[in-house]
Amino acid sequence: MLFSSLEFIFLFLPAVCIPYFLVRNTKVRNIILILASLFFYTFGEPKAVVLMVMSIVLNYGLAVLMEKHKSAKKIFLTASILVNIGLLFWYKYTAFFVSGINTVFGLSFDVPVIHLPIGISFFTFQAMSYVIDVYRGDTPVQKRLSNLLLYISFFPQLIAGPIIKYHDIDAQIEQRDVSFENYALGTKRFLTGLFKKVLIANSAGALWESISGGDMSALSMAGAWLGAIAYSIQIYFDFSGYSDMAIGLGKIFGFDFLENFNYPYISGSIREFWRRWHISLSTWFKEYLYIPLGGSRRGNIRTYFNLFVVFLCTGIWHGASWNFVIWGMWHGLFSIIERLGFEKILKKCRVINHIYTLAVVVIGFVIFAMTDFTRLGEYMGVMLLNSNHIIVNDSFIFDLISNFVLIAAAVIFSMPVYKILEKNAFVKKAEGVVYPILFVITVAYLVSSAYNPFLYFRF
């Protein structure tokens, strides 16, 4: 069930909000959210819900044992990490691993078909962060299973993040501000994300699919760049829009989630980009992989190695396909180059460093998007080398004119323009008219169109 679906907006969400706001007791409210979250996940994954609950119970038990038997807590930590990584490997990477063995060694093992549970990368990482933080002493062990169940299964962040650390919301599980003011702020944030997802991301996605799925031999260089930009628009507004909706839903129920995106397309370097893009994931890898590996404390060579490992794992986390591996290594390569001194050069010219960053990001997203390496090679040939010897053609001009408003809106809202404008008194008053109009337009779009993908479901 997508947040941007009619059944979620008009059926599921009201069915949760009505009883939630009718009761005053926090424990009862927590039970309502747990039941709603389990139903929400069961709606999309009726079999995998058992797996998720078992994972939560197991991590809960290991953390409790860690607290009771401190002399053996490293054993329980190791068990938790092995179980969580084992689950991820089995469901997400087994087929990829077997296929790789067959290719490298010329074998013919049957490649298993294993259904990937929605959101497994997100709820597994949250469970791991909780147990690791208990081991480190950064958060107290939670004795109530229901609290941990709510923390990991809470439907706003269950299937697409943000990846939340337990100590950031543990106090809110026990006591939080459920008020009309927070409800209003949360609703506004949810609608903002909904508009970004449906009106911008979906439209950009349709343009990308039209260009990337068309006749490659007739594609112009400008058209290839337009398609790549369209996909970059889609994935940003798709995922940041979904994060906005998650943060807004959390606010409606009294929870404060940390931001997950901070206008990444205004970055002046790849290092800055990763401080602004999918912040919860990059923070997770920094705290639980990069720093334990030694971070930047053991000399330059070790720092570059640690960066390479982190970005390699970031790519692998996104999916069991070589294009994700290459995408992670692509970003790791430029992060290392910048640390070697290139970032100092970039800081001297804001325009050049911005163009460079966007070029690296956009090219990287083409790699991210295309799992067919033959088609990827053809697309890159046109995009970077003009292999069709067509710089501009009628198709490009038609697509550009047809989508000019979309591209202009995407450019404006990928920068903190509205963040500045919303402080204006007139703009604040206009929201009372603009938001309802945009909501009606969004609903009309959802009713009339069957195209409503969500890219991060597969991760």
Count of DSSP E strands? Answer: 0
Distance between the termini: 16 Å
Biggest sheet statistics: none
Class inferred from helices and paired strands: mainly alpha
Enumerate how many helices there are, as a single number: 20
Strand percent estimate = under 5%
Unreliable spans are none
Please estimate the helix content: over 70%
Number of domains: 2
Could you say which overall geometry the principal axes of the C-alpha atoms support? Answer: globular
Helix and strand run = HHHHHHHHHHHHHHHHHHHH
Mean pLDDT: 92
Radius of gyration (CA) equals 23 Å
Explain what the structure shows.
74% of the residues lie in helices and 0% in strands. The chain folds into two domains: 171 residues, no CATH class; 277 residues, no CATH class. By secondary structure, the chain is mainly alpha-helical. It starts with 5 loop residues before the first helix and ends in an 11-residue tail after the last helix. The chain contains 20 helices and no strands.
Write the layout of secondary structure elements.
Elements: H1 6-22, H2 26-44, H3 48-68, H4 73-105, H5 120-136, H6 145-153, H7 155-158, H8 166-174, H9 180-212, H10 221-252, H11 270-276, H12 279-290, H13 300-318, H14 322-346, H15 350-369, H16 373-385, H17 394-402, H18 404-413, H19 417-421, H20 425-448
Please give a handful of descriptors for the protein shown.
20 helices; mainly alpha; 2 domains; 459 residues
